[in-house]
Write a structure and sequence with these properties.
Blueprint lengths: L1 E4 L13 H8 L9 E4 L4 E8 L11 E3 L3 E9 L2 E7 L6 E6 L4 E4 L5 E5 L3 E5 L3 E4 L7 E9 L6
Antiparallel strand pairs: 1-10, 2-3, 3-12, 4-8, 5-10, 5-12, 6-9, 6-11, 7-8
């Protein structure tokens, strides 16, 4: 997992297939997009999320992992907290792999947590099971899913 400010995202372009596509997207007025899912291309899907803390939703400790996509989380407002665990250490499948959505859910306990403040990003490769929005506050963020060379290894 890589965490840094948006100013340094281009330092990691070798990890992101079709980085120019992402760069073009980030040069638009993307902050003004409505909450929802957007398919930018075959290799780039974008989800905008506005989240208000709900303690009742925190009772399930689920972790999500992908096979084909690399996650890029960008916090627009607030502070996001992401819990994680290496996928090789996950053994409690909560929901089997869904090929159409490219995800599997685990109910394992997480190993750690990272904080992603406003104007920061996290790149999460397929070897990391994770769950975002674990904080006790309001957050606005983007989750961008990329096809990844890492997924082919």
């Amino acid at each position: 997992m890589i965490i840094n400010t948006l100013n340094f995202l281009s330092n990691y372009k070798s990890l992101i297939e079709n980085f120019d596509e992402l760069d073009s997207f980030l040069k638009t007025n993307y902050h003004s997009l409505d909450v929802g899912s957007y398919i930018i291309s075959d290799t780039l899907h974008v989800v905008k999320i506005n989240y208000s803390y709900n303690p009742e939703s925190m009772h399930l400790s689920l972790l999500e992992a992908h096979r084909d996509f690399l996650d890029l989380h960008i916090t627009l407002k607030g502070i996001d907290e992401i819990v994680y665990k290496n996928i090789n250490a996950c053994n409690k499948v909560y929901k089997p792999y869904n090929e159409d959505g490219d995800y599997i859910l685990y109910s394992d306990e997480f190993d750690g947590m990272v904080t992603i403040p406003e104007n920061y990003f996290a790149i999460i490769e397929p070897s990391i099971a994770h769950m975002a929005l674990m904080q006790k506050g309001d957050v606005s963020k983007f989750c961008l899913l990329y096809t990844s060379d890492a997924a082919d290894e």
